[in-house]
Amino acid sequence: MEAWLTDTIHALMALLALPQVGLTSLFVIALVSATLLPLGSEPAVILLVTANPAMFWPAIVVATIGNTIGGAISWWMGWGAERAYEHARHRPPPNARALAWLQRFGARACLLSWLPLVGDPLCAVAGWLRLPFWPCVLYMAIGKFLRYMVMTAAAVWVL
Question: What is the pTM of this model?
Answer without folding.
Answer: 0.80
